[in-house]
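Example: Calmegin.
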Amino acid sequence: MLHCDPCGHPGALSRWYHLPILSVQEPAERHSWLLPQYIYIYSFSAVALSSLSAPFTPWTPKPTGEVHFTETFDNGILTGWILSKTKKEDTDEDISKYDCKTWEIEELRENTVPGDRGLVLKSIAKHHALSAMLTKPFIFENKSLIVQYEVNFQNGIDCGGAYIKLLSSTDDLDLEYFFDKTSYTIMFGPDKCGEDYKLHFIFRHKNPITGDYEEKHAKRPDVDLKKIYLDKKTHLYSLVLKPDDTFEVLIDQTVVGKGSLLEDMVPPVNPPKEVEDSSDTKPNDWDERAKIPDASAVKPDDWDEDDVPKIEDPDAVKPEGWLDDEPEYIPDPNAEKPEDWDEEMDGEWEAPQIPNPNCEIAPGCGEWVRPMMSNPNYKGKWKPPMIDNPNYQGIWIPRKIPNPDYFEDPHPFEMTPISAIGLELWSMTSDIYFDNFIICSEKEVADGWAADSWGVKKLVASANEPGMFSQLVMATEDRPWLWILYILTLALPIGLGVLFCWPKVDDDDDDYKKTDIPKPLTKGELEQEREDEAELEEENEDPAEEGKISKRNMKEADESTGSGDGPVKSVRKRRVRKD
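Written out as structure tokens, the predicted fold is:
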């Protein structure tokens, strides 16, 4: 036995593959909280197996509780599935027959899990139908119904569906004659035509009075289905119906739609208690006009209905340089009459007209006409103002009467039992991949099945995702303007770094250097400075030593004064004092 799970679950490596040197040890229990641990186990197993050369046998997920149907297709054959032999009604003869050669069992083209297979719809522009009986019928009583399966639009989706039908339990159900009008209880799954992306949840409700069935449609989920349908990834579609007459629709284990079977279906399950009386008619004197013309209003005397809406602008001035004598178009001087031109048949030949080149440099050519402007005095045809209608009675509606077809179904969850599952599809897209169907009642069973199947696919797909840099480059293929954003994103922090981190010159050093520049002094100023230094020497405690320093400084100053006929340079002197 090989133990590989640091979380304490034994046999993690053998959990996915049966190796010749290993035995299988299943966990004693599986709970929904174990899903992250299972995905971790599979990750570890995939890495470990990539370094082993020994042959292995793929491990197929198995349900851990009561189920009504499961299918993985991993055995490579359509065990229990029946291809329809009938024809679709109300369609062209050449495409009416359901094509039995359009289904294959294959691995995924991308992000393949070794040994994992699925059902693939291969052909386009054909009708397809196959079905299988449930292990045991599902009766809508006191347990939830959970339907779950995987779909991958490997070529994207143009027009077509990937939904399933849960067929009603009837005495005349024959899967060899399964077609579009076969009775079903629930229809669920993705569909697309044109730019309309849908995720169907439809159930057929039986009228308890008439016995007729009517389709009830759930509202559209609040999610971008286009992105999901076109990303060429395997997605998990789940439908949960509960005995309390509520439902949930999930994609990849995330709720995208939920509601009540009584309140959130179109049309509603229960009809209205009252309906309009079809025999009721509107009275002839019923007045629906909210506003009427004021009969007492009189047209003003200065109202001129003959005014025109547009007049010439009296302030307009002809632009300078306008060429009045030049036409806007002239005959093309380079044009030549065709050799086959027959004037008796075609008439007199005339050269085609071209824009006058002289008009290109002028503001205009030909006769100048004043531009038109709105007439400030124009009022149009006079009409009396509208006032409230004193006889207004509102919009007439027929009276209400009790609905003769009224009924109340307090528990629409109690639908017609189901005994088979079927795919009856039309598609203009090939290679639609289906896998890992399960119908059960317990959420823990469905979650465990998803962890063992879709969870592995998701893990492999995540491992094969390109790096961040590659994703950024790929994004520019459809949106080249992203390059500008990338450049600005990189340039901004660099520019800010240069702005705030560039070393600045110390102003104190500049001031110090400026004070070191010698200033020109006259002889008088130099003598005064010498007298000040002499007084300072007398105040020092050591006159002899200070005298030596003073004489040395005086000598340096004498040597720097020059001839004494003009300004002289002074030298900064350090005054030394002893404590």
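Residues 482-501 form the longest helix (20 residues).
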